[in-house]
Amino acid sequence: MKALVTGIAGFAGVHLVRHLRARGYRLCGIVQDFALPAATAQALAGVPLYRCEITEAKQLVAIVEKTRPDEIYHLAAISSVPFAREHPGLTFDVNIEGTRNLLRAAAALGRPRFLFVSTVQVYRLPPGGKLLTEKTPLAPANAYAASKATAELLVRRAAEESGLRAVIVRPTNMIGPGQSDRFAIGNFTRQVAEIMLHSREPVLRTGDLSRQRDFLDVRDGVRAMHLALRKGLPGETYNICSGRARSLREAVDLLRRLSRMKITVRTDRAQIRTNDPARIAGSAAKILRRTGWRAQIPFAQSLADALGAAVKELSGTMR
Predict the structure, then answer these.
(1) Is 57 helix (H, G, I), strand (E, B) or coil?
(2) Domain 179-213+244-277+297-318 CATH (choose: 3.90.25.10, 3.40.50.720, 2.40.50.140, 3.30.70.1560)
(3) What are phi and psi of 270, to 5 degrees?
(4) pLDDT by residue (tens digit) across 148-178?
(5) Tens digit of pLDDT for each residue in 172-207?
């Protein structure tokens, strides 16, 4: 089985490569640049990589025709909410037009299986802290979510009109080893790792820690992506989540305990997002019924593994 992964050098992409390799897949991927961080380059060693902007339709078609994958995992996207807010035009170009280009390339190839990674941020948040389900109405509240919701429409239309075996997944907040410090848990993890290595004062700077999110280990996440593509129904959408909301404060407290160091927590108002939802949590009942998938890696283990990876990475750069 051969798979093409867009966004292969990203957080989830690297973990998806490990997951698929362990199952005997032949892999190839699309990157923006061949200059990759050492850990990423090591993880992707032996995987044929093609440099391409997914907004470049002709180049993308040529890559798909050359590689002729059985499965396409579309992970490439602008996924930072603050960046998307500052650059909505670029976000829509990459997340919508890039998806349109890849769908056309896939349709021209024939009928490969196609996975589109969306987000639970496309939903209208239900009252009373109810879990988000695939039947929850959509009401994207930011440019990133709006771009993903629009791209979903393109994927569904492709499934209906061309018979493309396309499946959509909506993950919650994925965490784990290798996450960028552009995201809250990745940022906290890196700060604590720097403190442990005595390259930073023992002060952890955070935003609003009362916010609650449904945190999912990225390794559980990519396992769900694979199962959704293999066993999900074409044109269907599946939430990928743990089903439980946890506060950022709980994450910070766990990281402090894992560090075994005395760390002061200080609120940085620059990190506080206005209009940020107080709580987001989803139901994974639909994907469980269809594929048998459920989250397995405990929250504490995700943080411990992420912290260990951050310490290892930073130790290497300090030599």
Answers:
(1) helix
(2) 3.90.25.10
(3) -65, -20
(4) 999 999 999 999 998 899 999 999 999 999 9
(5) 999 999 999 999 999 999 999 999 999 999 999 999
